[in-house]
Amino acid sequence: MPLPAPTSPAQPADALDYLLSADAIRQTKARYCRYIDTKQWDRLASIFTDDCRFEGLGSAPAGADVAMFVQGVSSRLAHTISVHHCHMQETVMTGPDTARVIWAMEDFVEWTDGGTVKETPGSKGFFGYGHYEEEYRRVGTDWKISFLRLTRLRLDPVPVDAPAPRMGQRQATPDWLDV
Question: Is the pLDDT of residue 117 over 70?
């Protein structure tokens, strides 16, 4: 049985293109989380459009461009263990090659060098919960992030006297998907 066409006038008439686009967008966001957590800063820049802008991030001021964002996040998270998860993607196509997406998100960031945590003073990290509000644009065959805003619903501190972090038994293989 064929899938019904999306009902919103902003959605594409072709349900298959919508599903393929939504999946490609999901993969772009998965790469975003993985590249940050595995500190692949050179790859991180590749998932954004050249004119992408950022808001609501502790690592870059509102309106930052891609270079400023990557430099800020790489400096800020250099001595951390971070885990970013994005869930429950809501996608609205705003044109044949553009989309808006909201992601439920949670993150864990712990400084391993005694660094300061401006979001939760007096702690060594935080658990964060909120949403990413993003715009995507198809560039050639790739979907890239063209606007990223982080909103926060809650931040819980990681106490200074929390147990020391233990690294996982096996570390990530950055080029695992490279064929």
Answer: yes
Query: Of 124, 106, 126, 108, nearest to 116 (Cα)?
Result: 124
pLDDT given for residue 7 in this prediction? 47
Domain count, the chain: 1
With respect to residue 169, please indicate whether it lies within any of the assigned structural domains.
Answer: no
Query: Is 164 inside any structural domain?
Result: no
Contact 51, 67 (CB under 8 A): no
Alpha helices in 122-166 (DSSP H): none
The answer to whether 69 touches 54, Cβ cutoff 8 Å, is: yes
Distances in whole angstroms, Cα of residue 174 to Cα of each of 40, 71, 93, 144: 8, 19, 31, 20
Domain of 140 in residue numbering reads as 15-159
Give the domain CATH number at 153: 3.10.450.50
pLDDT in tens, 41-58: 999 999 999 999 999 888
Residue 151 resides in a domain: yes
Model-wide pTM > 0.85: yes
